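Narrative of accomplishments. A recurring question from our advisory board has been how the design workflow behaves on a single, concrete structure rather than in aggregate. To address it, we present the structure tokens for one chain from the evaluation set, followed by the sequence designed for it. No filtering or post-editing was applied between the two.
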């Protein structure tokens, strides 16, 4: 998809499954299962959609999925084989890990940051040798000071090589990364979670990672139980959704299984996802 001087492309890094109750928090199964049916183990399907932005002569990837270094325990947690399409997905776009200039990490949970490293001779090393990894400083600190609630989603030994190889760029709070590309601090889902707002040629594309992971989360009460500050998530989305709808923003959804790019429209009784083909039609 091209918008102004920018272009955003997407591919699926991996498919996995997580507990439906985890993903929808206080919402009863009788409600959420009509939208996203669970299997016999109460697991719902998820995709790790990755997005590559070409802008200002740079290639930037937004989050990097689960990767291919999961432990057996993690494979069970995510109900996945551990196979990753990260590098083959890049090849499908005519790219390699060496082509990437910036790895934009919305937060450091395994399903978003696991692919940042690979294993070589038994050691973790950065997968993107020429890239700078952009991380919110609060998020980095949280990943290295876990507690009983967060220890399962942060794996310090897979993050530390990014620092040891000089690949980190810390940001603090809302930050303009490049003209027309802004990291918007949100917290909510994690300590240092942020979204990305892009604008070029009068068109806007937003990537809000796990705060708006599919169109279902346009419903304000639909907040994952994993969010550490659910009321913050609620406040952020309450402020964000009117802008998205009023400004015809295209949303990049990180975990939507069927439609990674689209516009959210207000229907008579619920929000509707407008496919990107329709979203880009002349007005």
């Amino acid at each position: 998809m091209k918008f102004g001087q920018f272009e955003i492309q997407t591919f699926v890094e991996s498919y996995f499954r997580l507990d439906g109750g985890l993903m929808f928090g206080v919402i009863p199964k009788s409600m959420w299962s009509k939208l996203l049916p669970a299997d016999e183990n109460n697991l719902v399907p998820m995709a790790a959609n990755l997005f590559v932005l070409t802008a200002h002569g740079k290639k930037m990837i937004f989050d990097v999925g689960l990767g291919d270094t999961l432990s057996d325990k993690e494979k069970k947690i995510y109900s996945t084989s551990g196979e990753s399409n990260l590098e083959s997905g890049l090849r499908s776009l005519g790219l390699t890990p060496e082509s990437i200039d910036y790895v934009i990490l919305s937060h450091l949970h395994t399903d978003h940051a696991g692919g940042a490293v690979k294993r070589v001779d038994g050691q973790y090393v950065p997968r993107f040798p020429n890239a700078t990894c952009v991380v919110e400083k609060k998020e980095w600190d949280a990943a290295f000071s876990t507690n009983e609630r967060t220890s399962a989603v942060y794996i310090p030994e897979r993050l530390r090589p990014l620092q040891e190889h000089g690949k980190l760029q810390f940001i603090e709070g809302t930050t303009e990364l490049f003209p027309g590309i802004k990291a918007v601090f949100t917290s909510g889902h994690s300590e240092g979670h942020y979204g990305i707002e892009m604008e070029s040629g009068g068109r806007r594309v937003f990537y809000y990672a796990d705060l708006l992971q599919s169109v279902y989360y346009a419903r304000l009460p639909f907040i994952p139980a994993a969010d550490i500050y659910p009321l913050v998530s609620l406040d952020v989305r309450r402020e964000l959704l009117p802008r998205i709808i009023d400004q015809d923003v295209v949303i990049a959804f990180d975990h939507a299984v069927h439609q990674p790019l689209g516009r959210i429209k207000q229907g008579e009784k619920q929000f509707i996802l407008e496919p990107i083909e329709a979203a880009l039609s002349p007005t």
